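ASSEMBLY PREDICTION REQUEST
Request ID: AP-0331
Submitted by: J.K., bench scientist
Number of chains: two
Total residues: 222
Priority: normal
Notes: Please return the full assembly, not individual chains.
Input sequences:
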Amino acid sequence: GQNIDQPTEMTATEGAIVQINCTYQTSGFNGLFWYQQHAGEAPTFLSYNVLDGLEEKGRFSSFLSRSKGYSYLLLKELQMKDSASYLCAVRDSNYQLIWGAGTKLIIKP
Amino acid sequence: ETGVTQTPRHLVMGMTNKKSLKCEQHLGHNAMYWYKQSAKKPLELMFVYNFKEQTENNSVPSRFSPECPNSSHLFLHLHTLQPEDSALYLCASSLKVGDAETQYFGPGTRLLV
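STATUS: Completed
Returned structure:
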């Protein structure tokens, strides 16, 4: 079966750095997405990786290793507004998105 | 982001009611999706429409009935629901199905049965 694993919840301190991991087992691979979802709101697109390596976008970076079936989202200089759920999703060989259950990130002052 | 809108935002219905959820996208996209999001579970893809044609139906019970009259509008008709159907129902759209197209989500309808 297809599976996406990510931690259920993480806690970090304002101003610090946090890394949210995602491991996947899917039938084929056509890209990995990270979405941010604040409570009661729509998921919003953060990043897309299809090749190995690091993609940097401001305070957020996303890394992919296809051979290891592994990705992480790195958030730097954490702000209170970064408190949200972070969803990892992989597009399989049929171009269908397989979603993880999300990681709830709690930022403390 | 107001590119994808959903109404109503909240809905409480009895098990014998019939109601409809509405989704509208103003992004010029050709693909639209219905997802179910339950607490602490992955997003579950329910239906996919590409250029108004249904291309996916992931074993969804017949008490959920989608309708896509045009590329900008998507409905989900509900009838004789069960308590386990209580969830957040998200609509999304993308330029087309496949490739690396990013999906854009609406705010969702919180449904309580």
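REVIEWER COMMENTS: The interface with chain B takes residues 4, 8, 30-31, 33, 35, 40-45, 48, 50, 87, 89, 91, 95-102 of chain A (CB under 8 Å).
SIGN-OFF: pending second reviewer
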